[in-house]
Amino acid sequence: MNSTPLDSNVDAVVCIPTFRRPDWLRQTLESVLSQKTDFPFAIVIVDNDAANPAGHAVAKAMLDTTDIPSTLEIEPSQGNCHAINRAFSSALDTYPSARWFLMIDDDEIAEAGWLQHMVETARRTAADIVGGPVTRTFDADVPASIRNHAIFGSIEGATRQVNMIHGSGNCLIARHVFERFGAPFFDLRFNFLGGGDMEFFTRCRLAGYKTWWCAEAIIHETVPSDRSNPKWLMKRSIRIGSINFVIDRLHMGAFAGVKVFAKNLVSLSLGVVRSLGILLRTGEIVPATHPLLMSVGRMAPLLGLTPRPYEAKA
C-alpha cells in the first residue's frame, strides 16, 4: 500500500536505502513487515539504481499486499549519502506526524520486537538518538581471527546512555534532530568514501544530543565471503582511517589542519606499537594490521588517495 501525501497517522518511519540487492532486500523487508508494535509505523524504501531498480520492483510487489503505509522512491544520483538523504527527506515530508525515523540496511534482518524496543527506549528516556546491536553471520567458514576482527566489533553491554553511536545500520533519530541540521543530513563529501553516518552522529554529539543504546533491539547482518577475506579487511581498515581523518578535519575548529596533522603523526606511532602488540599477543597477522592500516588511512587523503568504495561501476 502506498501512502497518501502528508499521512498523519504514523508515529515512526523505517527507512531502507537499497542498491543492487533485491534478494537481500526481500528478507529485510519481510523482517520489518512482521514487526508487532503498539503504534502505527510506515516504511520508506529508496532504490539507488535508477538504471535497473530491481529493489523497487521487489518492494512494490511486497508492499502492495499490506496495509502498512509505505513510500517507494528511486534516487538517480548515485551514492549512499544521496540515497539515505532521500529516504529521510521523503519520510519527514510524507509523514508529518512521525516523531521517530529509523534505518536498517538492505543486507540486515530485524529480530521480532526490534522496532518496539527502539521506540520504547526513545519514549522512556527522551533520547534524541537510539542505536542497537548488529550481530554478524558469515556466509563462509572463517577463522576466529576474522570473526573477532575489530572491524566487526560493536558497542556491547546493557541498555544505557552512551556518548554516540557510529553507524546508521540500526538507528533511530528524532524528528527535531533533522529539523535542526537541515538537508542534506548526511554530508555529501562522504558519498563514495562512506562514513557519512559517523560524521552525522559526531555532529549530534557536538550539538549535545542525547544518545541511548538499546541492547534488546537486535539486527542480524549477513557478511558475504568477499567481505570476510584479508584483502577486504585491510582495505576497510585504511578506509576507516581516512573517514576518521576527514571527520577530524571538519570538526577540530581553529587550526584544524595543524591539529589533524599532529594527530596523524601520533596515530602512526601508536599504530605501529598497537599492531606489534596484537601480533605478539595473538600471533594473528590480519587483526594485527588494523591499527597500523587505520593510521596509514589517515595519511591517504593528504596524498589525494581518498578511497571511494561506494562509487559503483555502471
From TrEMBL:
User: Do you know which Gene3D superfamilies this protein is assigned to?
Assistant: Spore Coat Polysaccharide Biosynthesis Protein SpsA, Chain A
Every Glycosyltransferase 2-like domain range: 14-173
Entry's Gene Ontology molecular function annotations: glycosyltransferase activity
Its keywords, alphabetically, are: Glycosyltransferase, Transferase
What InterPro entries has UniProt attached to this entry?
Glyco_trans_2-like, Nucleotide-diphossugar_trans
Pfam short name (any one): Glycos_transf_2
* EC number(s) on file: 2.4.-.-
Q: Does the keyword Transferase apply?
A: yes
* Stated family: Belongs to the glycosyltransferase 2 family.
Q: What name appears for this protein in its UniProt entry?
A: Glycosyltransferase
Native species: Shinella sumterensis
